[in-house]
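sorry for the late reply, my laptop died twice this morning and i had to redo everyting from scratch. anyway the thing you sent over, i finally got around to it. pasting the sequence first so we're on the same page, its 237 residues, then the predicted structure underneath. double check i copied it right bc i was rushing
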Amino acid sequence: MLGRPRPSVQAPEDAPYVCPMHWKVRSTAPGSCPICGMALERRETVGRRPEVPSYNVWVMRRHAITLSIRAPARADGDGGVTVLLHRDEIAALAADEAATFEPTGGGASLPVRRRDAPPRPWDDDTFEVSFGADGAAAGVGPGTAGWAVFAPRREQIVVVPETALVPSSDGAYVMVASRGDRTFTRRKVSTGKVTIGNVPIVDGLAAGERVATRRTLILEAARQLRDPGRPEIEVDR
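ok and here's the structure:
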């Protein structure tokens, strides 16, 4: 950002711009957080830094980020390319999204375009997405490994700290707070790629909702001990 100071913890405490997720990052001018890449926001729109409750309840907000996708890929025998992508990355792509396949061994890049085929699960976090080649490139044969590079884009996302997630055999859950943060309800969420301790939520939470980010495993254990058939648990505050 030419002509703009780099956000820093050395900026005055009352600097007008802060990172909504990392309050120590502040600036006298607009910019991006050097920790998570989120756009700095006016202090008055972020609000007052919350007090730290027992369960560190986090208020869900939408954040503007620049999403730069560079994903592992391989060339297929049918002339196409299979790309491994996270849920949030897939959600950001158009149905006919264009990309560039860059072989790891060097050589010419290959323009590719997303095919009309559903993503196939690869593991718990990523999916295989099929792309067709727009042309031919020397040295790109079946099995060639590389990277699929996409044009950067601005996205509005809802994120939670990684500590908010409760892992389970059928996916990730969070503990949603209600009734003055005295009741926490277990809810399944679809997550994206973890970046510096922050997790994009693709589905399951909305801006304005509140989730626990501390002692979540204790909350879940207490819920199961008290009544595993009920998704919520009440706590004394």
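The helical segments are 43-46, 87-92, 216-226.
thats about all i looked at so far, will dig more tmrw
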